[in-house]
């Protein structure tokens, strides 16, 4: 009855959810997506396979898309999706369903967990501490019923918005938002940086190199905001949009947990 849950996380929300879910399910293994991305192909034959990720601009993170394309199912797995988001899951789980269909696989079920927002935008979406606590409590309350659905191998429509227009819109939104907010292009380290290399070690896309007197961002950013939220000096900004805004990570997830995601020795 083994369950393998592949997960991707930028600030720990998704990891916190899949940890609780794995504990509830029993006989489960958590496997980080960034570590798997070093492989050409990822063979998988578990009885149940979960794919867990945060929603970015109503869609899947690019790194998760790349990961699903590398997956090769060698048995008849029950496949479920877990999407965490701030409020609006859009068609992210339907995008996952479509990707799996391209591989001749079906998404048996897909669940949305609403968690604190880690996007730093023009307006505050993160909310205050009581608001975040409410979200953690509501999400915890969903763990047992979701685990029961998975254990019973229930088939259900993925949660979120199934509209094809929204799904196509999601791709456009992601691309437009990427252009509009320019996260990859506008990332920069300020003079607060003390060259500790945390950002280089945490970046799931291996997109950052810290040199003696510079932090260099490459072109493969997956927009997870991990570097921004986990920099101990609060030294990473996206243009001027993030200046003075609070940073976030899930309270039960540590920097060590995050560093393990890449599977570096
Ligand atoms: C670039 C970016 C885009 C996001 N887009 C959405 C979105 O479209 N809808 C939403 O509800 N939350 C959105 N979020 C918020 C995250 O999905 C949410 O905070 C998630 O739980 C973060 O998970 P993590 O801590 O595992 O990285 C976005 C976050 C980022 C960084
Ligand atoms: S984590 Fe922050 S302080 Fe450390 S090297 Fe990166 S930008 Fe500089
Ligand atoms: S550069 Fe920063 S935001 Fe981009 S993928 Fe790396 S850690 Fe995430």
Entry keywords:
Rossmann fold, binds iron/sulfur cluster, two-stranded parallel ribbon, 2 domains, binds flavin mononucleotide, alpha/beta, 10 helices, 265 residues, Alpha-Beta Plaits
Question: Brief description of this entry?
Answer:
With 265 residues, the chain is α/β, with parallel strands linked by helices. The protein has helices spanning 13-25, 33-36, 62-70, 92-102, 129-151, 164-181, 183-186, 198-202, 226-230, 255-260; strands spanning 3-7, 28-32, 42-44, 48-54, 71-73, 78-85, 109-114, 187-189, 208-211, 214-217, 236-238.
Strand order of the largest sheet: 2-1-4-6-7
Superfamily (CATH H level) name of the largest domain: Flavodoxin domain
Low-confidence runs (pLDDT<50, min 5 residues)? Answer: none
Q: Tell me the distance between the termini.
A: 30 Å
Identify the CATH architecture of the largest domain: 3-Layer(aba) Sandwich
What is the element string, with H for helices and E for strands?
Answer: EHEHEEHEEHEHHHEHEEHEH
**For the record, what CATH class of the largest domain applies?**
Alpha Beta
* Mean pLDDT reading: 91
The kinds of small molecule bound in this structure are: flavin mononucleotide, iron/sulfur cluster
Question: Which shape, going by the Cα principal axes?
Answer: globular
The structural domain count equals 2
CATH topology title of the largest domain:
Rossmann fold
Query: What is the percent of helical residues?
Result: 25-40%
Based on CA atoms alone, the radius of gyration comes out at: 18 Å
What is the number of beta strands? 11
Sheet-strand content, in percent, reads 15-25%
Instruction: Please state the structural category.
Output: alpha/beta
Provide a count of the helices. 10
Biggest beta sheet attributes? 5 strands, parallel
